[in-house]
Amino acid sequence: MENEFTAIIERDGEWFVAWCPEVPGANGQGRTKDEARESLAEPFSLILQDRREDALRGLPPDALRETVRVK
């Protein structure tokens, strides 16, 4: 699955910090803008996986589960 998110990147001294307004809690950092942007990928995956698992825990056994693609 592929999605696009917004990366807000700001300089903080010698580092760049990045965060995403669409995924609260997703933050990254790096010595370059590219490193900061790329470091957001892992938090996205971890946060979305955790939210998915948390949401599915309470489903009744007869609930339907289907995939929705977003382009």
Q: Could you characterize what this model shows?
A:
With about 70 residues, the protein is of the alpha+beta class. It has a domain at about 10-55. Helix content is about 30%, strand content about 20%. The protein is built from two helices and three strands, in the order βββαα. The protein has helices at about 35-40, 40-55, and strands at about 10, 15-20, 25-30. The protein has a three-stranded antiparallel beta sheet. β2 (about 15-20) and β3 (about 25-30) form a beta hairpin. The radius of gyration is 16 Å and the shape is elongated. The N and C termini lie close together (about 10 Å). The mean pLDDT is about 90.
On the 0 to 100 scale, the average pLDDT is: 91
Helix content range of the residues, please?
Answer: 25-40%
Strand content: 15-25%
The structure class reads: alpha+beta
Rounded to an integer in angstroms, the radius of gyration calculated over CA atoms is 16 Å
Strand segment tally:
3
Shape category = elongated
Sheet with the most strands? 3 strands, antiparallel
Order of helices and strands: EEEHH
Oligomeric state of the chains present here = single chain
Number of helices: 2
Output the strand order for the largest sheet.
1-2-3
Low-confidence stretches: none
Question: Between the first and last Cα atoms, what is the distance in angstroms?
Answer: 10 Å
